[in-house]
Amino acid sequence: MKLITAIVKPFKMSDVRDALRDIDVVGLTVSDAQGYGRQRGHTEVYRGAEYQIDFVPKIRMEVLTEDNDAARVIESIVSAARTGKIGDGKVWVQDVEEVVRVRTGERGPAAI
Amino acid sequence: MYFLTETAQINSGDTAWMILCTALVLLMTPGLAFFYAGMVRSKHALAMIMQSFVTIAIVSVTWVTVGYSLAFDTDAGGGLIGGLHMVGLAHAETAVPGLHLTFPPLAFVTFQMMFAVLTAALLSGASADRMRFGAFVTFIAIWSIVVYAPLAHWVWSPDGWLNKAGLLDFAGGTVVEICSGASALALALVIGPRRGWPKEMMAPHNLPLTLLGAGLLWFGWIGFNAGSALSAGYLAASAALVTHLSGVGGMIGWLVLEKRLTGKATTLGAASGAVAGLVAITPAAGFLSPLPALLLGATAGVVSLFAIRLKFRFRYDDSLDVVAVHYVGGFIGTLFVGLFAAAAVNPAVRHQGLLLGGGFTQIARQGLGVLTATTFAFTLTYVIAWVLRATIGLRVEPDAEIEGLDSSQHAEGAYEFTATSSLGRTS
Question: Which residue ranges form the domains of chain B, and what is each CATH number?
Answer without folding.
Answer: 12-193+200-412 (1.10.3430.10)
